[in-house]
Amino acid sequence: MGVTEPGPEETGGRQPGRRLGEVAALVSAVTAVAGLLLAVFGLPGAMVASGARPPAPGSPATPGPSATAPSGPGQPATPAPPAPSGPAPGTPTPGSGTTQAPATPGAPAPLPAGWHRFTEPGLTLSGAVPDGWQPDAQDELRRNWKSPDGAHVLGFKRDSFHGTTAEAAADGQLAWYRKTAESAMEGLQVQRTRTAHDGEEAVLLTLDYHWPGRSAPRRRVELFVAGADQRVYQLLVDSEAGAGRPAEQAELFDTARGQLRTEVR
Questions:
Q1: CB–CB of 258/182 below 8 Å?
Q2: What angle do CA 138, 162, 178 make, to 5 degrees?
Q3: What is this structure's pTM?
Q4: Quick one: pLDDT at residue 29?
Q5: CA 241 to CA 201: how far, in whole Å?
Q6: Distances in Å between the alpha carbon of 71 and those of 62, 78, 80, 82?
Q7: How many Cα atoms occupy the beta-carbon half-sphere of 137 within 13 Å?
Q8: For each successive 10 residues of the chain (265 residues), what is the average pLDDT?
């Protein structure tokens, strides 16, 4: 009698190979559905499983200049170059020639030929006078020099009799100049300018006048500079105002002013 193989009815209606195929198809379907859910909803488990970390709250979607970027497939990430820390292009830098340092107060102008410097500790000032000029009217408050031809007087002074600021001293000095009996200045005409000297506030007076009983004009240029101890420094050039004299006076005054330094201890 021959052996009879079990039929489909005896094995539940399915063959073994066919059953394994259905199981494999089911597993594939489940895996596909799970992958779709992870891709759509971005479940953290998917990122953890892949070795990546979720971005921190508020972080940009793209890397900034300091982030790292992959250099190629299978290559380690390469850091981006750091931003430069120096000044932006075109910014002036000290010593580059683009900008110049401010002049240092206290440095006198170059001394021209025919002049010599002096220091007066009692007046706490230093200055310069032309060679060959003779001292004139010197005391504890002032030092005056007269030119060899007598046409110009160059004077330096420091006191507080007419005020303790440049403005007040100029006002007080002008009030005295207008007293002809004391100042011997008639027909006084005044030009006044606010200025500065060696970093200090100053006042410049230009005075046109003549001596009593004389018609020859004269001009006095006088600078008032505030100093310490409520004292004011004065520099003046008093000159004949004849032909050519104003130009000589202007050169004398500018040179003397360029050499004047106050508060010299």
A1: no
A2: 90
A3: 0.60
A4: 59
A5: 28
A6: 16, 6, 10, 17
A7: 10
A8: 43 48 56 49 41 39 38 44 38 30 58 95 96 93 96 96 95 96 96 94 96 94 95 97 93 96 92
- Separation of alpha carbons 54 and 32, rounded Å: 23
From the list 224, 115, 130, 122, the residue with the least C-alpha distance to 169 is 224
Cα distances (Å, whole numbers) of residue 22 to 14, 27, 35: 11, 9, 20
Which stretches of 107-180 are assigned E, i.e. beta strand? 115-120, 125-130, 134-136, 142-146, 152-159
Residue 77 to residues 59, 61, 164, 241, Cα–Cα distance (Å): 19, 18, 75, 87
The predicted pLDDT at position 63 comes to 37
CB 159 within 8 A of CB 232: yes
Query: What is the Cα–Cα distance from 63 to 70, expressed in whole angstroms?
Result: 11
Q: What are phi and psi of 249, to 5 degrees?
A: -65, -45
For tokens 């990122």, what's the residue?
47
According to DSSP, the residues that pair with 2 across neighbouring strands are none
Identify the residue whose tokens are 């195929």: 21
Q: What angle do CA 122, 124, 125 make, to 5 degrees?
A: 115
CB 162 within 8 A of CB 172: yes
The answer to whether 225 and 205 are in contact (CB under 8 A) is no
- Residue 260, number of CB atoms within 10 A of its CB: 21
